[in-house]
Amino acid sequence: MSFPTQRMRRMRRTEGLRNLVRENRFSASDFIFPMFAVPGSGIKEEIKAIPGNYHFSVDRLVDEAKAVYDLGIPAVLLFGVPEKKDDAASGAYDPEGISQQAIRAVKRALPDLIVISDVCLCEYTPHGHCGILKNGYVENDSTLRLIEKVTISHAEAGVDIVAPAAMMDGQIGVMRRVLDETGYSETAILAYSAKFASKLYDPFFKHGTNSAVSFGDKKSHQMDYANANEAMREIALDIEEGADIVMIKPAMFYLDLVARAKDQFNLPLAVYNVSGEYAMIKSAAELNRINEKEIAKEVLTSFKRAGADLIISYFAKDVATILGA
Question: Is residue 195 annotated as part of the catalytic site, yes or no?
Fold first, then answer.
């Protein structure tokens, strides 16, 4: 019997050997943890469609942010869930809006925690669409004017990074311009560069931010999930307009694009492990179909292997706890 000249199993024999040659690793410092702020006080209510994640009033949000920071997670992504909505999305740029209150409170309590804010209008409109509607269609340029106002209100509140989710043409350029013109040139932009029109967002919109669309869909501005070259064009445009970090959303079904973007662009690359991806794993684990802890680690490793530098995930806190154990 002839023997293999290369014995690949040699370095798989023990856990120590496997760790020694492991090519990709993630740590708590790679994570960004999404958080949801609501009006009121003393509130901590689980979001049933995103189990283990909560609606927090600002006072309880600060306590949770401290727990996140103590786990070694460097950043949170804040979403505001307002009490009132209107067609002008006025709560989105109100200096005393829920997002602005949350930003100020967290930065006051934890100045070293990186606070990223969602800059979108869908949470603040009664119809759930991402901007100003005309005949049922989201108007791009009038929406940009409101995005400017939201951006400045968040910068004034002390946010570190603004993250525009609306997928409006030119949104990064107008945000970069208005930040620079108003003295906030150090405020960074995390661009939702390739955000696809996905049903994987449903738990987030229906239960996380209570902003499911009342009619139609978001396919006129979010990307067709069949398109890959277009995603690269979107990323290139955002970089040209001044993005500091680019992102692909969702993550699990789009690893081919993560790998392409990592190869093609020399900029920090984020992925958003979205609510539907999280909920699928949680649901399967509750049915004892899979091992949640091991699957979460495998999924997060796949993001790093594909080239992601930063991972926004609802698993972040749980996995960071495991890593620190």
Answer: yes
